[in-house]
Backbone:
């Protein structure tokens, strides 16, 4: 299962957790799990309406202790919550501490979280991780983050909006700066988004949850979470770039690096460019998870100043690999099936090449012998 965070008006920790509750996570289950932390609090979830009906979350606690990172890690470590939830929660709080230390020019050990160390923040982060696990969410995606403007009062004094911690957490992420005079995205909300990929997935929608914010605007202050199954897992991207000022001898080296980095395929085509110049079109087929690595190689190893990319669909034959025992030696052969019938028989090139060199025979003879032997195994 995956979840897509649709940021309509911003995001805070309580809105994120409220949306997960609205999508179906049990409040009683949440309370039971969070009691394992051994801190005092009460949780109240209410259905409320702001054009759209959703869930508002209220966390009440008399605990006003000021905690540092070690205090929070100790609370998490000494609890009996699931180990994977512990690890993710500690990772988020360490990230928050590192950023606070950087912003205020102090060591991590001297960071006192103030607002971030309050009970409600611990509940928001740990509770959200518990809810995600129980809803079966294995991957989180998000739309660009909406940010407000102005100033906000906190224990440190008056800070600009977006808060410095929020911006640090969102480095490298897509954001939208608005003229709305309010803190739309909080550090806790930004910290939870550190788990997300900023990408629009293709999914089969199963559950939708709305988490309500506390501020009142001229538009619904709500966070939407959409939960479902990811589709088109085999979807790939095509990246291409035009190059007209690079030594062509470099292309084989670049293609080899791209394949080593996880590209599914890469090739070069001659083209006629503007002003009658000849050039080359370098195209790469790659999965989403390998895109950044491939783009890095293209920028570092070629003379390109930019590239284009888009998602493509593809159909693949079902396939299996068999070992054909030929009179020259063993050759791996790929068998492709379409609707249960053999559509392709393809001996492994490197095996055929090695045997042809070792046995001093024509490669085409090795290739044909491997095809015949593989056919008899089907």
Residues:
């Amino acid at each position: 299962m995956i979840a897509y965070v649709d940021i309509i008006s911003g995001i805070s920790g309580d809105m994120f957790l409220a949306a997960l509750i609205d999508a179906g996570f049990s409040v009683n289950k949440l309370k039971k799990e969070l009691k394992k932390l051994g801190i005092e609090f009460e949780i109240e979830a209410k259905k409320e309406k702001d054009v759209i009906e959703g869930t508002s979350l209220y966390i009440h606690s008399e605990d006003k202790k000021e905690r540092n990172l070690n205090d929070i890690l100790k609370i998490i470590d000494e609890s009996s919550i699931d180990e994977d939830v512990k690890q993710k929660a500690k990772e988020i709080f360490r990230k928050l501490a590192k950023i606070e230390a950087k912003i205020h020019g102090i060591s991590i050990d001297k960071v006192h979280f103030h607002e971030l160390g309050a009970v409600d923040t611990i509940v928001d982060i740990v509770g959200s991780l518990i809810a995600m696990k129980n809803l079966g969410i294995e991957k989180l995606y998000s739309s660009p983050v909406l940010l407000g403007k102005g100033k906000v009062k906190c224990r440190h004094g008056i800070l600009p909006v977006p808060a410095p911690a929020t911006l640090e957490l969102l480095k490298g992420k897509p954001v939208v700066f608005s003229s709305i005079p309010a803190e739309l995205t909080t550090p806790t909300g930004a910290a939870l988004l550190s788990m997300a990929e900023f990408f629009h997935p293709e999914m089969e929608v199963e559950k939708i949850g709305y988490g309500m914010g506390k501020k009142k605007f001229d538009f619904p202050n709500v966070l939407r979470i959409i939960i479902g199954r990811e589709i088109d897992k085999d979807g790939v991207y095509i990246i291409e770039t035009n190059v007209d000022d690079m030594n062509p001898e470099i292309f084989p080296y670049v293609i080899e690096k791209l394949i080593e980095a996880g590209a599914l395929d890469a090739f070069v085509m001659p083209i006629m460019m503007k002003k009658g110049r000849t050039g080359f079109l370098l195209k790469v087929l790659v999965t989403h998870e390998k895109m950044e690595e491939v783009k890095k190689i293209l920028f570092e190893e070629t003379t390109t100043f930019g590239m284009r990319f888009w998602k493509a669909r593809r159909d693949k034959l079902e396939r299996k690999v068999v070992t054909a025992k030929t009179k020259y030696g063993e050759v791996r052969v790929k068998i492709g099936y379409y609707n249960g019938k053999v559509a392709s028989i393809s001996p492994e090139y490197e095996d055929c090449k090695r045997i042809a060199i070792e046995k001093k025979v024509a490669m085409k003879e090795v290739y044909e012998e491997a095809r015949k032997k593989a056919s008899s195994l089907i």
Summary: The chain has a mean pLDDT of 91. The longest helix spans residues 83-104. The chain has three domains: 2-230, 236-312, 318-377.
